[in-house]
Amino acid sequence: MTGLDRSRPPDEGEIRNFAFPEVERRTLATGLDVRVARVSRLPVVSASVFMRAGESALGETSAGLAVLAGSALEGGTARRSGTDLAEALERIGARLAFSTGWEGTSVSLSCLAERLEAGLALLAEAVLEPDFPEAEVARSRDQQLAGIRQRLKDPASLAADAAARRTFAAAVPYARRLQGTEASVTPLGRSHLHGWADACFRPERGGLVLAGDVDADEMERLADTCFGGWTGAPSAAHGFAVEPGTRERRIWVVDRPGSVQSEIRVSHVGVSRSDPDVFPLTVLNTLLGGAFTSRLNLNLRERSGFTYGVRSHFAMRGRGGSFEVQTAVGTDVTAAAVREILAELDGLVSGGPTPDEVEAARDYIAGIFPLRLESVGQVADLVLEQVVYGLEDDYHARYRDRIRSVTPEAAWDAARRHVRPGEAQIVVVGDATAMARPVEALALGPVEVVGPGD
Amino acid sequence: MGILSVPFERRRLGNGLRVVLSHDPSVPVVAVNLWYGVGSRNEPEGRTGFAHLFEHMMFQGSANVPKNGHFELVERAGGTLNATTWYDRTNYFESLPSHHLELALWLESDRMGWMLPALDQKKLDNQRDVVKNEKRQRYDNQPYGDWDERLQRLVFPPAHPYHHTVIGSMDDLDAATLEDVASFFRAFYVPSNAVLSVAGDFDPGRVMDQVDAYFGEIPSGSPVPPLPGDPEVEERIGGTVRDDVVADVPLPRVIMAFRIPPYDAPGFTTAEVARAVLGTGRASRLYRRLVRERRAAKEVVSYAFPLLSGASMLLVWATGYPGKPVAELEAALGEEVQGLTDAEDAEVQRAVAVLETDLVRSLEQVGHRADLLSMFELYFSDPGRLNREVDRLRSVSAADVRRFAAERLGADNRAVVTYRPKEAP
Questions:
Q1: ipTM higher than 0.85?
Q2: Per the CB < 8 Å rule, is A18 touching B27?
């Protein structure tokens, strides 16, 4: 090749189509929803069971029970100790991951395809026949309590927990730390876990997702062998409406003496995963703080040098969610950073995004979609999202088209409704003696200095 | 045939740039990945952290690309990108829809060839602030955040290139000048000190022409300067060296490290398997004994760092429970590590099976595949090593692990950093 013109970006080549993997749905006689995504690249598979056994179904006094029950599943079954279960899995190179969130508990298997039959049987045994032996429960509980203690010393966790508590009204589960408190977790024992598992480790309103080079008919038979006797519905969820703690903008300085940075969170109540504005908000968030070249990052990092990075995020959950800006900045520029974050939010709401920004954000989100689907684990996670949030079967197949159809007007409209800097709760974790006064001088609202536990 | 058969082709351009191609059209994405043979080990005294600061400067534009143009164009194309700096190397990478392959080639070649014309003091000052905030966020403001600084000082003598951390010191970051950036670029960012890998969906008939068009006219530079300091060290530390810290941390923690053979020495594979027997998975020794049975540790971690210069290190750490003496935790951890002298066949087989699945799964992403190919080419001139990784791991026997434990995991080769919470016993 000669005469290469380096002065401008090259023309793009021929675009190749990308389709979301085909997903086949089967329902077992017992009601278990089985979804199989065929991905034939490497000989690996991913299988996830989701059960409607989440923290949002719990009241404040038992906060942390769902998380504990999920992690204590590794403690073994009536037939096998925890060590034996781990050895049976790892001998064949398989791994189980246990994860509990607000909506439920999922148990995920990853292994080589030729090991799926043995691996899935072990997954089913762990979920259907947990024994919760006393010593293992005590161990998992001590780990969870120690983890809570770690969160109180880690500035980012401290900021996240403090922001949740100020954002949501006290009765909303999302106001809590997912792992519960020392008071709610300490009394939990074997009988609580058995009670919870009996009530909530049930197939209905949950599902089984498999992704890999696998055949749907065969997977249906395998699921039936492993889960065929599993029946029932989880007990009713704890009902709640998502309300903000206050609509008055307030600043909370969490004193962490000696900090060399301030962790900042600016947040307010957001939307649920089923909100009609999900797509405009996804585009909007990308240009505000969801990509490297977003407004917030170009200002706070690339122009001002205040931070290593800043992000914004709509956490969209089953019943509602939050909008949050998060960053960590040098102590001496704390007030300036808070001021710039609010200026960016105000500017976005009053002036709206430019058509070029919206186009760039749409191109980015639609373009990276195939990169979110390279591994069987990633595919299984997205299909599982359909189960967890009750999304349409073609949700991900249509995802990129729906992103591409977001107009600048729709994005601005969504900003005006869902970005409300006047209602923000501003949490700053850092050395209060060094930064509380300059933050107060911004005159953004009442300032309260609190301790890490408050 | 082994379980892995990743296809690849090797080429070398006239200017010395090594190229590895790995075709896989199953998804319309492509990864472009560059490894430069420069890292914190190449930093002279007084410039710790500079290789990483330099990596940031590579995103501040080049002759034909404006500041942040790299991020703007790749994100707009629907791609992801980043870079990382480590002891022996610095890597830069993009994964993007395959019809944008040339964009990545253009961006990477422009900064490999013509980064200096875009350099100015304002950009350096800005990125110095960014990196200082990265250091604060990831190290200085974190409980236990200074552990690797303390540990590296114990494991490697002052003259050794691994005596200091990748992130470096604030004073050294402050001291960096524009001239440092320019001379570092001229010394290390030359085609003959780099590997370019392209993996995923590309046109096999055209890709070499495309690579050659963008990278071929970059002038070849001089051979890179020798390492500062002295990488030669004794095989063992020669005792137990320690640093006991009382700090504002939530839980007691013990970190133990051992000198092991470097990544390119035959003995390294045994170290890799030994560390997996110890700490990879819930059936590993440390998890089973310390976390599950003795309930002495809340969590355990193990690593074998793939380092090249003279020696590397194997590292284990255990985090204890509140109120428990850190000395008890250290004794328990030491006992279990040394106990590896009775490692059994079944344990080694389990460890290898888990490593094997982890390796295969990591190859699902073209970006990671490209990254491994670059590493194997840069370190071993042998990208085909990727397809032999499983065999390499399988070649380790329980007897090898036992011998390794006896030779390397004893009190004569141990560096210990302990953290005791300020307000606890």
A1: yes
A2: yes
